Amino acid sequence: MLLDQQWKKVLNRLENELTAVNYDLWVSSLSPIQYANDELILMAPSVTAKNQVNQVNIFEKLTRAVRAEFTPYTFVRVTDRDEYEESLRHQDEEFEKTVKENSNLKSKFNKKYTFENFVVGKSNQVVCAAMHSVAENPGKKFNPLFIYGGVGLGKTHLLHAVGNYLNEHRPELNVMYVSCEKFINDYVESVKNVKSANTSDFRDKYRNVDVLMVDDIQFISNKMSTQEEFFNTYNELYQNNKQIIIASDRPPKEMSALEERLRSRFSSGLVQDIQMPDYETKVAILKMKCAEEGFLIDNDVLDFIALKDCDSIRDLEGILSKVTFYASLLGKNSTSLEDAREALKDYGESEKTNVDADKIINVVCDFFKVNKEDLVGSKRNKEFVEPRQMCIYLINDMLNMPLTAIGSIFGGRDHTTIMHARDKINEQLKTNPHTKVLVNDIKSRISKA
Ligand code: ADP
Ligand code: MG
Predict the structure, then answer these.
(1) What is the CATH number for 36?
(2) Distance from Cα 151 to the centre of ligand 2, integer Å
(3) Which atom of ligand 1 sits closest to the CA of residue 153?
């Protein structure tokens, strides 16, 4: 109503300024349909009418009169029905597109991975606290935050947890999660399309974020030109107090073929490792996963699974799903210890079946450069005693062979001597981190031999 009244005033002004023909035939036939954002949209009854009004001599006077009655900044747009409907459709599409883009951005993060369902224990509490604090205060505290640890220990889970947290608490922030591989591909694509201005698309994409998370950064090693681009992106974000979080399977100092300047950037914030959880944390993780799936599980079964030899949470989940799958075949949503044993009867066998005492002895001899007679013999020189203890430990650990049987392999030694050798390595495993590395190294050679 108000719009019509305003428009009448405009018409009054124009009546005296335009020729009778222009006024009667064209301008007075316009109807105002929308006034928003300093724009007045006028609908003409036909394309001809629209074109006539759009002629400079009429349009200038029209605009001046509109600005006198509306605001001095008002823009005038004359349209016809078809054009108007088309523009409405276009607006809808644009709107849907933005909504979709935004929701794509939001759904980038895996809803399954949150802080709430990340079980915290000794092995990961510092990492988890650091990630949480960065999510609460991006760009303020630990920048960059560099987390590292073996496969399947929860790094990606934590990155998504940060993303989900920020989406919920700081929806205005542009948070980006990207695998290193994707970053490299995007970069390579942009270089290929250098003529079509895609490099600037690439820059806009990566440099306009508030939080950048790059997963599995170790893959950037050897990719020199990508490193260069990453370095530039990094600097730009860092200078603008944007948060950078990086995950890797190893610490910066162990990333070979990494430019020194990147290594020093990565090390300049907080570098924190994530370890394999201890037994209690494993049990807690198993409990939570079962609860999520509505699977009922007794403590003895939890114990049984948590004691299985595995070196990542992903493996642990794999073991659990073997158990739940077996139960589902039986039509149950719970399991007895017997069923769990049955479900896992092949687990780990594949690595162990072809390992025997001979193989272990051969690998140990090869590793320590001693010959077999000296290893199993009775010489007490240091260069034989250490490999011998290691070999005894490994045979006991990997084959679960009785001590007396091991004794007879080692020249008929009695079981207390064997026990002593085994305990010595066990003791060192607790106090000396090098022993653990050594043991794992030899074990992996044995399984590959
Ligand atoms: P990474 O990226 O370090 O290789 P992921 O983040 O992919 O490991 O984790 C592997 C699996 O283990 C995921 O399903 C993840 O949810 C689970 N996981 C790892 N750590 C935990 C934890 N502390 N609590 C709950 N689930 C975990
Ligand atoms: Mg990962």
Answers:
(1) 3.30.300.180
(2) 7
(3) 3
Residues 297 and 378 in one domain: no
Which protein residues touch ligand 1 with a CB less than 6 Å away?
113, 117-119, 124, 151-157, 285, 313-314, 317
**Structural domain harbouring 328:** 279-349
Of the residues 251, 273, 295, the one at which a domain ends: 273
**Looking at the structure, do residues 309 and 433 belong to the same domain, yes or no?**
no
Query: Both 322 and 364 in a single domain?
Result: no
CA distance 205 to 215: 17
Domain identity same for 134 and 211: yes
Q: In this structure, what is the dihedral angle of CA atoms 283, 288, 294, 299, given to the nearest 10 degrees?
A: 20
| Between 148 and 349, the higher pLDDT residue | 148
Q: Model-level pTM? A: 0.60
Q: What is the pLDDT of residue 207?
A: 87
The residue to mutate among 313, 315, 316, 320, having the most atoms of ligand 1 within 8 angstroms of its beta carbon, is 313
Say if residues 151 and 190 touch (Cβ distance below 8 Å). Answer: no
The residue among 243, 261, 245, 249 whose CA lies nearest residue 219 is 249
Ligand 2 centroid, distance to 322 Cα (angstroms): 22
pLDDT per position as a tens digit, 261-315: 999 999 999 999 999 998 889 999 999 999 998 999 988 899 889 888 788 899 8
Provide the token pair at 71.
């605001």
Expressed in angstroms and rounded, the spacing between residue 6 Cα and the centre of ligand 1 is 64
